[in-house]
Every structure is written in C-alpha cells, then in structure tokens.
Amino acid sequence: MLRTGFHSVLTVEGLGGLGIEFASKSLFSSLLDNWQSVEETKRRSLFLACCKTWKVPILAILVPRVCVTGLKFAQPFLMQAIIDSIGNFDGIASSFPAFIEMPFTVLDCGVGMFFLSRFTGLSCLAIFVPLIASTVLGLLFGRPSTSALKLWNENIQARVAKTSRMLSQLPAIKALGLGPKTAEFIQSLRVTEIASSKKYRVIQAISTALAVVVDLVTPVVVVAVALFTSALGHRISAQVLYPTLGIVSLVQGPLAELLKGYPTSMAMMGCFERIEAFLCLEDHKDPRVVVCSDPPQASGEGQILEKLPATAFQIPQQASTHIIRFDKATIAPRGSDTPVLNYIDLEIISGSINGVYGHTSSGKSTFLESILGEAEILDGTLYVDNITITVCAQRIWLPNTSFRECIIGDCEYDRVWFNIVVTRCGLQQDLAALPNGEDYVIGSDGVALSGGQCQRIGIARAVYPRPRAIILDDVFSSIDRRTALDILTGLCGENGLLRNSGCTVIMATYLPESLDFVQNLILLDDDGAVTCEPRWKPNGKPSETAVFLQRCMLPQQDVAARQELPHERPRATAMSSRASAPPRDSTQGDVGKGRGKGDFTLYLLWFNAIGSLISTFWALLVLLMGTTEVFTSIYVRIWIAVAPSDRLFIIGYAMVALSSGLLCGLCIFLNHVHLSPRASLALHDTLTTTVAQSTLGFLSTTDSGSILNRYSQDMDLLAKHIPQAIYATLYCGATSTVQIGVILSSATYMTAVLPFIFISVFFIQRYYLRSSRQLRLLEIEAQAPLVTELRETATGLIYIRAFRCQEHSFNRGLRLLDLSQKPFYFLLCSQAFLALTLDLLASAVALILAIVTLFARNPSQNATGLAFLLLINIGTSFNRFVTYWAMSETSVGSLSRLRDFFDHTPKEPSNRATVDLPPDWPSNGVIQINNVTARYRVKKEELDDSVLHDLSLAIEPGKKIGIMGRTGSGKSSLLSTLLGFLEYEGSIYIDGVDIKKADPDQLRSRIITISQDIVELEGTIRDNLLPFDKLWSAPSGTIDEKAKEKAERRDAVVRETLVRLRIWDRLVKHGGLDANLDAVGYSRGEKQLMCIARAVVRRRLTGSRLLLVDEATANVDPWRDQIVREMMKEYFRGCTIIVVAHRTETIADSNRTVHMAGGYIEKVENHW
C-alpha cells in the first residue's frame, strides 16, 4: 500500500479488503449479542460489551507489551556494563512508543523504581512524589474533563444538526435575501460551540502542562532527595548521576501518560455514555395490531418483512374483507399526547379507492400516518392486515441515487413493468429528456429535478412494488390538473393499474376530479371527528357532505383546456436538462496527483487564520521552550565540571526545570485556549461565507453531504486535532534541533552517526507521508457518502418502514461504513509501520554508538555521559517529531479540502455592487427587461447553456403578471434572474436601478418572495416571521423605551397577520410568538401559511412594492386559499406582483399572462 501510494494516487477501491474479521455486519452481530448479555441498563454496559467483543485482540496485546517493559528496563544493566568498560560512563539510546496503554504505566513505573533503587537506594521512593501528584491531579481533572467533553460534543451535535437544516433550505433562504443572516446564524452556532469547549480546553491545557512539569521535575526531585540523603555520596560524579538521570528518563514516559491517560480515558467514557444513551432510546413501536389474515406480501424480490409485534394474531378468512379497521381509535401525531382525531370507528375495504378530505390542519396527514404505524394511538385499536402499504407523502423523500434506483428501491428490476409505471405516472417525457436516462442521478432530495418531477417519481416509487395498499398524501400539489387527471386515470381509472390489481388506495387531495375515482369518502372535520360514507353524487340539492366537499376542494375547472404546469423550484432546476454528471463534491478530484505531496502553504492558512503577530510570538515561545528544556541537561554537566561537591547547585537545577515547565505551560495554554479557537472560528467563518455566497448552480449540483461533511469532520479536525499536531511538531522539532547542537558540542565523534540519522529519517518520512496524506484525504472523503446516507435515512424513516426496507437500508449503511473504514484502517497500519521503523532506527543508532564508545581513546566521562543522556532524549524526540509531523501532514488534509473548496466554489460576483439601493426601493415596482439572455454558472471556468433567450418585457407599477409554461420553459429561471441568481446579457431595471450593479443579497432582501418551498428557520415563531429584525432578542434593559415600543408594534402586526390566517389559536397554547416552531406542530399547509404571513409582515413593515410568488398556496385548502387571496389583495394593493402559476385560478385576476416555452416568451395575453 505504501509503495502504491508513493508512486500513484490512492483510491478507496484500490486499498483492498479489510478482512472478514473487520466486516461491520459480523462485528455488529457479535457486539449486539454481547450487549444483550450484559444488562443494558447497567452503567457503561456498552463499554463492557465492547471489551467482551474484542477480548481476544485485547489479550493478544498483553504478552508482547509485558516483554517490551522487561526489555526496556534491562537497559540500565547494559549501560552499567558499558560504563565499567570505559570508566564510569552512562547512556544507551532508547526510544518510546508513541502511545503507551494505561494499564501498563503502573507496571512500567514499578519496574523502573526497582532498577532505580540499584543506583539511588531508598531515595528512589522520591519518585512517588510526582507519581502521587500525577494520580491526584488525574483524578481531579478526570471527571470534570468527562462532563466538559460531553457538553462540547452535545454542542457539536446541535450545531451540525441545525447547520444541516439550514443548508438543505439554502437556495430558498437566499431567495428571501436571508443569505447573510443565515451565515451569521451558522457562525453563531460555531461561536457557541467553541465557547462551550473552553472548560474542556482549559482542563486539557492544565493537564498537559502539568504532565510536562512532572516530566521535568521528576529528575530534580530524585536527585535532590538522593543528594541530601547521601545516596549519591558527598560528591556527585558522572558515574552515578548520568545513570540515575537515564533511568529516571525511562520512568518519565509512564508518569506523563499516567497523568494524561486518566482524563483521556474518562473523556472516552463520556463518549461511550453518549453513544449508549442514544442506543438506549426507546425503539419505534408499532401501535397497530397487525392481523395475519393473508400471507405477508413482499414488495419485490429481496424485500425484507419486518418482524410482527406481539399483538399480531390470526383471524378466520371469512371474518371480513377489510384490510384496515379503526375501532374507537383516538389518534395523536407521533411524540404527542394531544389527540387530533377522536373516536374513529370505520373500515377500509380491500381493493377500494378512498378519498380523505378535510380543511388544512384537520388531521389528514395524521390519519394517514396512523395507518402506517407512525402516529400515537391514545385509545382504541387500529387493526391492519399484514401487507405492504406503500406511501407517497407530502414531503417527498428522494435519496441521492439514480432515477431508476429511486423508483425500484430494493425490488427486482422489471423493465416492462418499470416502463408501464413510468408511463402511467406521467414521467415518460421527463425520462426521455434526462441525460443518461434511467441512470440520471437526481441528487439529494431530488435537487436536480423540478417539484412536479419529484412528486411523480414519489408516486411511481409507491406503485412499482405492486403493493396491496397505497397511501397518497396530497401528491398533486405541484402538478397541473391535466397531468394529475391523467395520473389518476392511469392508476385509479377503469383500467388503472391500482384498480385492476385490487390495490387499496387511500388518498388525501384537494382536487375535485378525485371524486370521479373514489368509492368512499373519509371526512375529517375541524373538531377531530372522522366519518366514512359512500361517494357523494349530486342530486340537484346540495347535501351537507356536498357543501363540506366544496369548501375542501379547489374550484372545478375545465381541465381539458389545461396545459401541464409542474412546479419549478427557485433553484437551478433547468440545469437538469443539461447536466450529465451527478451531484458531487465540487472539489473532489481537483487535487489530483498533487494530493500525495506536501504543501507548506496549508500551514500558512492555519497561521493566517490566527493572525501573523500572535502566531509568530507563539512560534518563538515554542523554540525558546525547546532550548530551555535541553538546558537542564547542560546545567548538570556544568555542575559536575564546576562544583560537584556543592549541593546548592540543586537550586539552580530546580529553577531551570521549573522555568522550562512554566514556559511550556504558557505555550500549551495559548495553543488550547486562544490560538485553536481563533483558527477554528476564522476558518469556519470563511467556509460559511463561501457557502452563503456560492451560486445557485453550485448548490444544485453539489451533494449536500459533501458540504455538511466540511462542517462536521473537517471542523472537528480543526478544533481537536490540527492544533495539537502542529504544536507537537514544532515542539519536538525545536527540541531535536537543540539536542543535536548540544551533542555535537559534547562529543564530536557523533557527527559520523548524524548523517545516517538524517538520511534515514528523511527517506522514512518521505516514503511514509506521500501515502499517509492521501489516506487522510480518503478517510475524510469516504465519510461523505456515509454522512449523506445517515441523513437520508433519518429523514426517510417513514418511507423505509412503510416499504419494509429496514434490512436493505441497514445493509447499505454497513457497506458504506466498511468503505469509510478502509482508509482509516490502512492509515493506522501505516502509522504502526512508521513507529516500528523509527524504533528500529533508534536501536541501530544506540548499538553503533555503544560500539564506538567502547573503542574510543580517552573519552571524557562528563561529555560522554551528557551525550548518551541526550541520545536517550533525542531518540524519543526524533520518534515523536516524525510521528507528530506525519499526524499534522495527514490532519491538514482537511485544510487542503477547505482551501480547495474556498478556491473552486463558484461565488456570486462581489465586485458588481456599484449602486446603493435607496432606503425605500422598490417604491413603485416598475420593471423593464431588455433583450435578456440568462444562464446558470456552475464553475468559474465554464458557462452553462442559456435558459432564457432574448427576453424583453415591460411591467408597469401595480400590475399583476402571471407566468405560465411547461417544465423547463424558464418560469422559475425568470424569477431567479430578477433575484440576481443568474448571469445574463442585456439589462434589467427595477425602479430605474440596474440590478446587475446592485449587491445580490441586498437586492433579494428588498424584494418580497414567496416560494412553494417552505422555509423553516431555527428558533421561535417570531424568529421566523421577523428574520431581519433582532430588536426583540436583545436582553431586558438593553434597549430604550422607543425601541421597545417599536418592537411591540411589530409583534402586534405579526399577531394580527396570524389571526387573519387562522393559525394563531394553536400558538397561544405554546407561548405565542415565543413558541418554538418545531414544538407547535404545524401541518405542512399551516407552515405554508406562515411563509405567507412572513411576506405580509415584511410588506407591512418595509413598504416594498414588488412581490414574486411561486404558487404560494399549493398545500392550502380552498377555504384558506380564499382568505390568503383576500389578504394579499388588501396588503399588496398597489404592488407589482409576478406569479408563477400552476393553476389558472391563481392568476384569474392578473392583468397579463405571459406564456413561456423553451426560455422564450411565446405569447402575452392582456386582461385589462
């Protein structure tokens, strides 16, 4: 592997297999069995289970590790033999492993004390002073370190989760002009996280500094006690002092590890406890009673059926033909104990087609989720046959895979059936237009598709497994009525796929045409009552059911005259017709063959983030620290040469050691508490700014997992690993350099060995680093698919459980886990190779120097003793220097990824803002579009094909313009161009301002935008409705009365708007405007109303006269849709309104309708 990495670029696939003993599936089974054999509620049961699972490799370490201890402490006897040969000489080279396990430190200390007693007698007990101090301090800092690290990790988890949520909505957030505010929010999360880590950093800094102080003070304590107890005699000599210091140096390593090891072990236990707490969370329990009336139906070959709960039972075949039965059931949403639907008592017959109707927030989604086992049944019983029930919910879950794989899932691919399903779901034209056809990668959450395409793929996925029952939850909201009618006919019509197969259909929709297909009506009123009755048929006199349905349905229109108007999201959906590559990490592969070579400028990136002045000062301190540490050995030589009988020299010896320790503590404290947080915050801010300023094309073609990975793993490396690696490299390098100088001045004959050391170390690190750098980069990159998989699994659990794909999803996760562990494993192997090679090198040097010393003529005892004493330290220093250098080189792979991301991410032009928008802009809403040809820019080096062609349009102030057209016609691209997302030739003036010269974020913040994508910001309802206003968040007493009155007036505007939209009452129960959005439990339709409320509030507070709308009421029932229309007429009177329409009733009152096709204006209809 190292040979391959030296000569070529490593890939994850080319690393080879890990071996069956490392397979995640077998390890998971063993760990699960051992964990279940341990009491799961027992404290640290997960840690005990891990020890039990890997007991064989743990015990295999024991014998060789004990041998290492014995051989290491046999060195004093070898030293004594050499000293006797040359006349009282001390020294033999030795090196220590990079990491000494905690259980062996006690053994090392005990053996070392035994050998030390051979030189100092009972004075060896003095070594207990630092040992006891280290133990007490370890206990003192152990528990606080655990809680501090746990707090830090919890804040990291919260930051990454909230950042992920913001990144998934970033295109829509930028369209609202909230890009800078979102960047500030994400950066504030990092500031909060770093602040929460301060306690842990301080504890680690103190612990590490104390370990160094103990390391420096230990020889002083031993020599002082031995000197004043006459164990060394009345006159110190090189024959005794150097061997004593040599054996003490062998004990210093275990002492330092003992001091650092306990807090580290306790911190590890904290990580185990957090994982264990998550694993001990209550499992998902199906509240339904699964009735085994028929054999379980698989959704396709390889489909895995979940285990039946204990409540499953058999019933006679003749008992009933129903497959779902509610028996006086009271239902609440998942995780809530507040009932939404009460006392449901109805049956759903096998093979029937059922329509679920009700107003917004009446509980339709909760009703459908209860059938899937995803809601709480507070009372009564819900019986469901043991069948596969597929689902297509309001929020379409689309994993980052190909068009075909997204539809077939883990079912067997049947080309004939696949083509039938695609055709019946209205996707045949879309499939023909996609590059790579069925293999086209749709991206995370279908980012490379339009909203209508996403919904139709979701329907096709639910139909393909040939289910016994299917649930459709408002799946036509982004599809025009003609296409929706075609899909309904193809699935539920007379010769429909679902009707002919006997599939039970349960669908919630606002389409009135659905009444022509359903056989039973399931009606949900606003009080939580649910009734079921046969389909209503008009008989000349409207019944109560007819009136109810009219209020729940969209207005009946002549659907035959409709053209297809699928929803296009305000993002680069038009790019899907041109892009041939899947969404990816934009910087992956840009490094190329250079990824195996070092780059010193990466370190400059870290130091520049800190600041040149303070980083230079810190680097000088590290160099000075290395000098003062070696000076303790120099002082011993001076002592022996000048006044060997003067015991007061011990005071100077102690002062030199303490000064070196204090200087070291200062360097460590600065690194942990000041430099590391400063670099982390600065680079996180640069990353967030880069993401916030990235182009729409980049966001649409880049896998969200790769961006999130930079916020998780790369930021973790920046905060925890890179600072320590850089500090240790500088420290060991400085110490080694000074030691070399002292050795050359003490024993010139050693210059013959030094070239051998330098050449060997040079080639070892060169051969090792070229592969280790690549492995570190591969380790980071291999995490991105796993992060994406975990995120997609978490968001798609309802689908995974409904389709009974748990085992398939689990196995896919294990495969990605195995793939991500391959670089990690081989990196550990390469590090073990490095440690072994350096240890062998140090042993060879020790042997050569021992031979040379034995045959040297009249060597100076003092100089030779100092040389051998330093040789022990320089062997360790070289080992640590190369090890930490390698660690820093591999860790800065994250810096390389970040720099490539900074340099290669296409950003919106920042130098074009030459015009400051007036405070009241746009005050009229006059728009003049002249010969505009627009395109998306994906990368700096290339321009995409045009999506708008020679567009010219004049819009007078106060007019409402409707934009209509098929998918890819350019409707959303026109809105994106007006918002400054697209590059274009020609000119666009809004109220006399050339928008190309305006700052894009300021431009978007002045234009009011309502998109069909629901933007949910973190925080309270007030945060969501007043995202540009921060007066309300100021602490009490920090704002004056005038500002307070202004904030109260704004709150009043918000409350009035919410009351008008009929969504205030639920807020009152949760704390009003201070209620957290997630805690309120709004339905999707209510969340869309809240987005409309945000626009209304923005209009009332700013007076902006330009509104862009992308079908704002797709998920709202007609009753509230009428309320929204009336409100918008009232509050947006006199405003220029541009509406992308998917239903003609949305633009029924427009002044003009612009029909688009292929990026051109096909025709303009005036309705004056």
TrEMBL record:
Where in the numbering of this chain does the ABC transmembrane type-1 domain appear? 78-267, 619-890
Annotated Gene Ontology cellular component terms: plasma membrane
Report whether Cell membrane shows up as a keyword of the record: yes
One Pfam family hit: ABC_tran
Subcellular localization is given as:
Cell membrane
What is the membrane topology here? Answer: Multi-pass membrane protein
Q: Enumerate the InterPro entries for this protein.
A: AAA+_ATPase, ABC1_TM_dom, ABC1_TM_sf, ABC_transporter-like_ATP-bd, ABC_transporter-like_CS, ABC_transporter_C-like, ABCC_6TM_D2, P-loop_NTPase
Primary site of residence: membrane
Q: Which UniProt keywords apply?
A: ATP-binding, Cell membrane, Membrane, Nucleotide-binding, Transmembrane, Transmembrane helix, Transport
Residue intervals of the ABC transporter domain? 324-552, 927-1166
Q: Mention one GO molecular function.
A: ATP hydrolysis activity
Locations of Polar residues compositional bias?
574-589
Which residue ranges run through the membrane? 119-141, 205-228, 240-259, 603-628, 648-670, 749-769, 824-854, 866-887
> Can you name this protein?
ABC transporter
Source species:
Akanthomyces muscarius (Entomopathogenic fungus)
